[in-house]
## 1
Amino acid sequence: MINPDIESWALARAHNIVLNEGLSLAKAAQDLDRKRSRSLVYELRKVITAAIVEAHSASFEPAASKMEAGLPEASAGCNACMTPTHW
């Protein structure tokens, strides 16, 4: 089961990504700007990757560091990759 704090953080992060990079990409696509669309697809990919890495690295940090970063404390296991524990 997903920790509700992690779920809330993930939803807020996804919402922020869609509002920023997603809407910019939609606008470029509407304008038929292929060069800008390609650039924004790369940027969107980069932001999503950074969010995944942030969530994954947060699963290894102490609770105090997570709270400072605005991330919820992880429950048992790694919430980023949904595995019970890391080997």
## 2
Amino acid sequence: MPPYIATFLPEGINDHCPVKISLLDSLPKAKKPFQLCNVWVNHPQFIERVESIWATHIDGCRMLQVVRKLKLLKRSLKELNGQHFRNIISEANGNREPLMQIQQALQANPMDQQLQQKEKMKYLEFRRTSYLVEMFLQQKSKATWLRLGDYNTKYFFTVIKHRKLQHAITQLHDNQNVLQTDPIAIANIFVNYYENLWETREVSRCKANERILKNGPTLSVAHKMDLLKKYTEKDVKTAIFEIDSNKSQGPDGYGSGFYNAIWNVIGKDVSEAILEFF
């Protein structure tokens, strides 16, 4: 189905607002940035690939070492995804039909040990692939309140579709109040806005009234001393592990689920990089 936009026009003398439906040309597909999928961490090769990259010697400060290793790791994880996870949805759907056929045959001949063994193998195979699909779709849908294993695949697809529509920007007024629908023109509106925002300098700025501030709640001496304490590796780990694994990743494509899964491999370097910054 081609994309379209709906524009609600002024009602004028009518008792309703006219709706203008405009069909759009196929939107250009931008190159998708790297995003780590939490299902990757379940593969046996995942830890091996991380350990291999993390053993690489890189000169520079701690933060630079971590950043460069994460960049090197992206290529290896993309290969892992292409080899084992690119078609997990179709693979799970393909495993469903053989399982149902064997179960039907087993219902007709329940004492057949060969069918029992086949049913067990197909069940475990389908259970594994379907679980990976649900884990993958849950991360994309951000439906973190649902339990995995309850076969919520259809619901996840609906939420993902809704999120895409909700986040899509198909039209936007520029600084001349002209409605733009071209994706490139819309992107330029955002770029120009933030470029002008950073170039703007405030001529006069009101100072905070200290007398008014002191009349409100203030920090005690003990609180101030706590804020001055140095962070520890334990503080860093606690902060990262408190972030839900399905939360959106950072600009580098790595989410908290990645750090939680391999903290014993990269935790010390990540903690030292963060503490070096502070």
## 3
Amino acid sequence: VTPTPSLEEMADLGMVSMMAEAGQTQTPMVTESPLASPTEAPTSAPVSEETPPAPEPTPAPTPVPTPSVVEVFPTPAGETQPQPVVTEPSAAAGEVTYVVQPGDRLFRIALRFGVDYRALAAYNNILNPDRIYPGQVLRIPQPGIFPTPSAPSREILYTVQPGDNLFRIALRYNMNYLYLAAYNNIPNPHQIRVGQVIRIPVNP
């Protein structure tokens, strides 16, 4: 029969057991942690460069016509606004044209058509009757529009003296020397001769 150990023996046995366990070398357990695999850098996806759309052409602005402002003034009651009268030259008035030739004088042309040279000059807006030029177009009115110069009641006969010229003779009798030349059928008023008789028309 195995004797039952007492409590003291059991306590001693526990101490021995603990000491025995302390004498044993315990091998520490090394837990290997798995090495983390190197993480690859994430490859960025290629970014496609988007081409910006071509700018649309801007339409040129259409010019807006500026409305013209017309001021209208009311006509007072009881008054009628006069209408403009448009006059057109009449071709049936019997007017003829004459082209001035070299050597022509307005007085000769006026005598040829039976009109007064001063009236003919005014009719053609000629300021100086002594100045017309070859190629100039003269408007000759029909007879009756201008009064025909009356025939002289008498004539004075003047004999050219040495040193005379037609200009001085005409000036003495208060007339134009070109008219006096045309009246006497003198082709060149600057050429008269001594002893030549000049007819001077005199009106009452």
